[in-house]
What we know:
Shape: elongated
Amino acid sequence: MKELYAILFVFLFTGTTAQITVDGTYMPNSGDKVFYTNAEIGNDKTYEDKGANITWDYSGLELAFQDAEEYKSARSINFFFFTMDFGVKVADSLGFGQFMMRDIYDVYNVTNSAFKAEGRSLKYNGIPIPQNYSDDDELYQFPLDYGDVDTSTFKVSFSLAGQLSLVQQGTRTNEVDGWGTLRLPGKTYQNCLKVKTFIDEIDSLKFAGVSLPPLPNRRMEYKWFAPGIKNPVLIISGSLFGTAFTVTNVKFQEEEKEVIGFYATKEEVQVDEITELNDTSLMSGIFREWEISPNTYALEQGSNLGDSSAAVSFTDAGYYTVTLTKRNRFGSKVSSKTDYIKVNEKEPIGGGGTGGSTSMQEMAFNSDVIVFPNPFSNFIHVKSEHEILSLRLFDSLGRVVKEARSNQLHDLQELEQGVYFLESTQEKDKSVQRVVKK
């Protein structure tokens, strides 16, 4: 009997607590900022899974980009919207040529019955232009419970200088088709509610009095709400062509991260000494560019300004600023460090037992001498038309760190990474080669 009571208790407890109800408390407030991480989803289609007590596992999502979704007060966007709650930027720019519009915001209100877009603001020639929805877009109708379905219509239009007008109208259908457990990178949410949204939109454009063919804009969104958290914790959205759904964006809530960054293996070097710039960014990138200022530098070891690790030397003493720019389909990020690399004048190398001191400028750099491998790891070989009598390896301070009476140096693995100078003694002269320990 005790076992039966226990089973009934678990059943009743699960039935009364497993499902959440989404209402206005799950919507953002003016001044909120939510960080969303963009990721690539591949061919995973578990977003289609629906029903009760489902587990959606997206713990393997990898960061591709991250940005904040800011909810600015409607009044700060455009005073015309002083009765509304807040606005969210939906595009930086839209249009072409003299009809370029910037800072496009949708403006929202949260009521007990719905979360809806009621206005749109854009800047044209620097002037904010407000426009009310003639039919509000009800993104959610409250309360949202498992099994609910609702459909609404929307329409918004605007025109510029009587030459360009755009009308966007359509229907929105929400279906709460699942609840259960959602696994995201580093976090698992229990008792989530999944909302599937179908948007069937038509965009009508008129230019200089000529109406262009209407453009269908059909898309699908899958959103997961978690207990006590504002905004969906995961959004998977994409376009519909017929019945074929193509994912175009995946984003999930995550704390703010340093998505772009870099470091140099040496932040203080001498003229002609090599340091490596290393990209440590979390974001993926199809475009990367290093910028170094001033431009009195040289790329070494076959490096280029698009490499994840670029070897650089400097021809003049001074301070150098380094900037890294990365871009992918989600956007671009920039990291800059002012006066990051300090470059000192070259210090002289000691004479090594001759009683004198010989600077690098005074020592011959013989192009007939071949040093390999360079960069080196554990050993160095030297070839020349003339017999090599001895080798001496100097560090950047002119200290002898290794020498041998042959054309080879071995056991160099304990040396620190960086630039060294290899002195080769032949029958009648000496030469110096710059070598790099990797």
